[in-house]
Every structure is written in C-alpha cells, then in structure tokens.
Inverse folding.
C-alpha cells in the first residue's frame, strides 16, 4: 500500500490498510510483543475511524481485547470486547459477530463472571453454527467454555468441554488451537476432585509448551508456566 490508507478501498473492505494493521497487531500479540502491538492497533483504529470503516474498527477492538487477555488486564479486555460486540452487531457479518462475542466471553471469564462468560461464548457458538463462519475458533471457544463451567462449579461439564476442545484442536490439524485447548484441560484436571492425574496434566501442558515454542506464540508462555508451577506445587517438586 505504500502507506496509502485508500489503497484497495471498497474492493472487499472499506479500508484494507486499517484491517492489515489490526491483524498485524494480533500477530504481534501472539509473539508477545505487546507494546508494539498496542501501538499498531491504536494506529489501525484511528485510520479505520477516519475512513469510515466500522467493521474493521470492530475487529480491531476484538484484537485489542485479545491483547489485554494476554497482558492479563481484565477491564481492558472487557472494554474492547464490549465495543467489538457493539460494532459487530451493528455492522458486521457472522464472522465478526462470532469473534466479537468470543472476545467478550473471554473478558468476562477473566473477571470471574462465569455466567456472563458462558452466555457470551454460547452466543458466539450459535452465530458460528447459524452462519457457518468463524468455525476455526471452535476449539478456543470450547476451551474457554470449559474454564467458565469450572468456575461456575460444574467440573464434569468442564471436563467434557475441555475434551471436546482437545479433539476439535486435533481436527484442525493440531495448530494454534492446541494452546487454549491444552491450557483448559490442564486447568480442569488441576481443579478436579478425585485422583490426581499428573501424567495427563503434564502431557497437556507439554503439548501446549511445544506448540508455543514451535510457532513463536510467546504471548501464551506465561500462562503455561503458571500451570506448570501449579502442577509442581501439587507434586511437591520445586525443580519445575
């Protein structure tokens, strides 16, 4: 585009340049480069507003919500998640609406608002199924639903959803979806009543860490390390 925000305007998106900035922000977030990601997303939002592209603006807020999830800022994630839903419901198709409700659900999960998280994530699934769009996020949605059900006090339902998330991630070719699915399974098993399944937890976290390192998704690595530390504490092993 040579820095020209009008390049390709109106062919598919109102402002493809702003959309590319939003997606670049998402990739930087996954890499763990949070401050550069925040700057790129802010620039993309400014350009999307200036060129009258509310759909891209809504998707940018969704990616910004993801950034705050990785950064651990629940209120920031909620603010962007709400704006993403507001814009997607007004202007977006099934794809943007699916992801907007997903982002809002994750933000509510971070805040410990289990019922609100479940409702938002289930709404995302409904839109995805109705529109046959956003299906690439199914493993992630199931994983976060598992964590919300765990928080809501239903460990059996949580395990069922975590298992479905793991299988969905495998069906998607074992790519980035392995990360949220494996984290959810480990968290559910760490909190489960009954016999402690250390081997299964370690296998889940090992798969996640291998994927994080293979694709460079360093933004997720702190979460993996936290769960490995929880496992070590349960095992009485301070070497992990």
């Amino acid at each position: 585009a040579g820095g020209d925000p009008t390049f390709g305007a109106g062919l598919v998106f109102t402002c493809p340049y702003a959309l590319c900035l939003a997606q670049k922000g998402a990739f930087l977030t996954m890499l763990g480069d949070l401050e550069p990601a925040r700057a790129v997303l802010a620039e993309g939002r400014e350009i999307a507003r200036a060129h009258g592209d509310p759909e891209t603006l809504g998707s940018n807020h969704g990616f910004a919500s993801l950034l705050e999830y990785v950064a651990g800022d629940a209120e920031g994630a909620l603010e962007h998640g709400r704006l993403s839903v507001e814009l997607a419901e007004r202007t977006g198709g099934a794809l943007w609406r699916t992801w907007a409700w997903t982002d809002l659900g994750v933000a509510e999960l971070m805040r410990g608002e289990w019922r609100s998280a479940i409702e938002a994530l289930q709404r995302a699934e409904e839109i995805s199924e109705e529109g046959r769009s956003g299906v690439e996020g199914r493993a992630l949605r199931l994983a976060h639903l598992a964590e919300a059900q765990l928080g809501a006090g239903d460990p059996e339902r949580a395990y069922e959803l975590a298992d479905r998330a793991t299988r969905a991630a495998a069906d998607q070719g074992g790519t980035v979806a392995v990360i949220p699915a494996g984290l959810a399974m480990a968290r559910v098993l760490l909190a489960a009543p009954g016999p402690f399944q250390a081997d299964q937890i370690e296998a889940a976290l090992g798969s996640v860490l291998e994927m994080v390192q293979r694709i460079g998704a360093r933004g997720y690595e702190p979460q993996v390390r936290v769960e490995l530390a929880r496992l070590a504490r349960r095992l009485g092993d301070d070497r992990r």
Summary: The radius of gyration is 18 Å. The CA atoms of residues 229 and 240 lie 7 Å apart. DSSP finds eleven helices and no strands in the chain. Residues 54-71 form the longest helix (18 residues).
